[in-house]
Amino acid sequence: MYADKKACTLDVDSQYVELAVEIFAMLADATRVRIILALRDQELAVGTLASIVGKSPTAVSQHLAKMRLARMVSTRQDGTKVMYRLENEHARQLVTDAIHQAEHALGGVPAHHQKQEEA
Questions:
Q1: In total, how many domains does the chain have?
Q2: Does any domain span residue 24?
Q3: pLDDT by residue (tens digit) across 25-83?
Q4: Contacts from 82-86 at CB under 8 Å and sequence distance 24+?
Q5: Domain presence at residue 55
């Protein structure tokens, strides 16, 4: 029942700390962050992703290959197209939290807090 909590601890000496650092390193690229944002609610082909993030299909393919090796994205064949999607919700949440933290750096009340106050 609590197997997940035992497997991944949040202790400072957790075996996952170094892997977490590698995940942050993978996300330390604006194009990859934009790819995750584009894929957060849908799956897309390379050409469409390239158009959305403003990079060449070749560059986007290279980023996607690295993200696939890191198990951040997965693929599905759709005829002649390869469709990309996020592997799970965690990369999306990391990017969302990072953007929210960036909003705090601007001072004032961040947009994500304004939405909560209006509700």
A1: 1
A2: yes
A3: 999 999 999 999 999 999 999 999 999 999 999 999 999 999 999 999 999 999 999 99
A4: 82/45, 82/46, 83/43, 83/44, 83/45, 84/39, 84/43, 84/44, 84/45, 84/46, 84/49, 85/39, 85/42, 85/43, 85/44, 86/36, 86/39, 86/40
A5: yes
